[in-house]
Automatic annotation (TrEMBL):
Its main location: membrane. This is TLCD1 protein. Keywords: Membrane, Transmembrane, Transmembrane helix. The gene is Tlcd1. It is a multi-pass membrane protein. InterPro entries: TLC-dom, TLCD. The lineage of its organism: Eukaryota, Metazoa, Chordata, Craniata, Vertebrata. One of its GO terms (cellular component) is plasma membrane. It is found in: Membrane. Residues 41-235 form the TLC domain. GO terms for biological process: membrane assembly; phospholipid homeostasis; plasma membrane organization; regulation of membrane lipid distribution. It holds the Pfam family TRAM_LAG1_CLN8. The chain crosses the membrane at residues 6-27, 48-68, 137-158, 178-196, 208-227.
């Protein structure tokens, strides 16, 4: 990657940050459910989740399109390259930077520290991919998780709004479980196997492998939370009476 292309990529990331800043302002105009309006601590979280939902829809469909349009990329995870994949990584990097700033500037760092850790990992990994032009296919595979995040975010929005239709939540609960396996656990497991078997544990490869293994641990933890919350509520501990207004958990 030449200096000119890197500068253009930085501009794309900056443009993405601006786009999500505009979406955040637009989210202010979206009507809020009474359950959100009545609890001031939920207002920021509601708006933040709406922006997250927009990113999940755009990035998830974009990742699917990139792999469908260029399936040959899957045969070269380390050095495969596509303009669409590069743009997607820049776009999502901008979202993670924007969301980090949103959390910090709105004084939500303490309650949303898990997101800050996740975003730091994603931003550092994506920047290394943009600079070197390597492992972009791995990033596109990882961004398939955004398809899962569509239904995960809908789940959280439904919980916050106290939607009066249990059937809607129940339907989303099972869809969420299926897509969690298909678009979060499966790509993550495949990439972990690939990196441990084929990628040299040195330099960028070592850095990305370490990131991937830490992400594995986080995803398994979130999955156990999801199962306890939606399918085995009797196993939940310490949740009674907990006020999560304003908090942004990956799973709650």
């Amino acid at each position: 990657m030449g200096p000119g292309w890197r500068a253009a990529s930085a501009a794309l990331v900056g443009g993405s940050v601006a786009i999500f800043g505009a979406l955040r302002r637009l989210a202010l105009a979206v009507p809020q459910p009474a359950a959100v309006r009545s609890r001031p601590g939920r207002v920021w979280r509601w708006r933040n989740l709406l922006v997250s939902f927009a990113h999940s829809v755009l990035a998830g469909l974009w990742a699917l399109f990139s792999l469908w349009h260029s399936p040959e990329l899957l045969s070269d995870i380390q050095d495969g390259y596509s303009v669409s994949g590069h743009l997607l990584v820049c776009f999502s990097s901008g979202y993670f930077i924007h969301d980090t700033l949103d959390i910090v500037f709105n004084h939500q760092s303490r309650s949303s520290w898990e997101y800050l850790v996740h975003h730091a990992m994603a931003i550092s990994a994506f920047v290394s991919l943009i600079v070197t032009g390597r492992f972009l296919v791995a990033a596109v595979l990882l961004l398939l998780v955004e398809v899962s995040n569509i239904f995960l975010t809908v789940r959280m929005l439904l919980k916050m709004s106290n939607v009066p239709s249990p059937a809607l939540y129940e339907a989303n609960k099972y869809i969420n479980l299926v897509v969690y396996f298909a678009f979060r656990l499966a790509p993550q497991a495949y990439l972990t196997w690939y990196f441990l078997r084929y990628v040299e544990v040195q330099g960028q490869g070592a850095f990305l492998t370490a990131n991937l293994l830490l992400l594995d641990a986080m995803i398994l933890m979130y999955f156990s939370r999801l199962l306890r919350s939606d399918f085995f509520p009797s196993l939940r501990k310490g949740s009674a009476g907990r006020d999560v207004d304003g908090e942004k958990f990956l799973i709650d």
